[in-house]
């Protein structure tokens, strides 16, 4: 583990503009992610997980705070200066059904980031796309098929292959596995673990599921209503949770339903309403 974190998030604040003013979805959040490690971000629905992910990949511009990627603050960079950094942080989206263009063939979806990276030759892009599709465990027959012809787990793999095509330093997986059934979740997780072992990829995994967290993340951040309420090495946080949410999460982890990957009932909170 290197001493300089790959990602250093400091005092991140994200306000959404809603009718009647601003709604603070992320409130003074700080954490670091070291190279080659996986950080899990957990917390109930609506606590700000996806908002943090979108800020890190700069799909949204934070209200304030710093997001240091290898020492460069990307929080406030204008789009022009952000462009060369975009490929370094890739996101696999929460909804595998909505995040892929249904009209494109899998190989074209995966080849597009290669083109953006400057791989000029069509043949070379095809070759690399085929390698990536193979890397995520899909057969070569997948190359010519389009997203509607795939299962949820297969789409998720295409999303991961597309993200890897950018050769990112950091992969942000927003509940990449939650829309999928249990055995598929396990396969996708195993794939992420393999990739990490083989390529030293650094990951942020956003999840509701403690089984997932324990399996793949060294470090853990627990959020509640936009704030970090607990953080540290996963084993330590789970050994002595101080927050009711983390305790409930830990109890739920011992519940067979959670071990098989379903969200524990007690932790499924309705999405918080945005104040009008
Ligand atoms: N575009 C938006 N405009 C206004 N409010 C938003 C917007 N997107 C999210 N919010 C609000 O910000 C808060 C955080 O949302 P976010 O999607 O980050 O939560 P989450 O932790 O990812 O939830 P889930 O586990 O359900 O995916 C919620 O209260 C949500 O209603
Ligand atoms: Mg979310």
TrEMBL record:
GO function term, MF aspect, one: ATP binding
ABC transporter domain mapped to chain residues: 7-250
Family: Belongs to the ABC transporter superfamily.
Superkingdom as given in the UniProt entry: Bacteria
Keywords: ATP-binding, Nucleotide-binding, Transport
Protein name: Peptide/nickel transport system ATP-binding protein
Species assigned in the record: Kibdelosporangium banguiense
């Amino acid at each position: 583990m290197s001493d300089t974190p790959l990602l250093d998030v400091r005092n991140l604040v994200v306000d959404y503009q809603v009718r009647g003013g601003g709604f603070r979805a992320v409130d003074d959040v700080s954490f670091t992610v070291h190279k080659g490690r996986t950080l899990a971000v957990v917390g109930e629905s609506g606590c700000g997980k996806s908002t943090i992910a979108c800020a890190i990949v700069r799909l949204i511009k934070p209200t304030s705070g710093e997001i240091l990627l290898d020492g460069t603050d990307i929080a406030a960079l204008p789009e022009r200066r952000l462009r060369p950094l975009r490929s370094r942080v890739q996101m696999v989206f929460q909804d595998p059904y909505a995040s892929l263009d249904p009209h494109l063939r899998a190989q074209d979806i995966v080849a597009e980031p290669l083109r953006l990276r400057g791989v000029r030759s069509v043949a070379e892009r095809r070759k690399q796309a085929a390698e990536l599709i193979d890397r995520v465990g899909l057969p070569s027959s997948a190359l010519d098929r389009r997203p509607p012809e795939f299962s949820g787990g297969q789409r998720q793999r295409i999303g991961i292959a597309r993200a890897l095509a950018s050769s990112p330093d950091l992969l942000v997986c927003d509940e990449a596995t939650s829309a999928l059934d249990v055995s598929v979740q396990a396969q996708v997780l195993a794939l992420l673990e393999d990739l990490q072992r083989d390529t030293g990829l650094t990951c942020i995994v956003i999840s509701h599921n403690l089984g997932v967290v324990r399996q793949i993340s060294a470090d853990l951040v627990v959020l509640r209503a936009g704030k970090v309420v607990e953080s540290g090495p996963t084993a330590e946080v789970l050994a002595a949770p101080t927050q009711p949410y983390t305790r409930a999460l830990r109890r739920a982890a011992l519940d067979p339903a959670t071990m098989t990957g379903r969200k524990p009932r007690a932790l499924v909170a309705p999405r918080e309403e945005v104040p009008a």
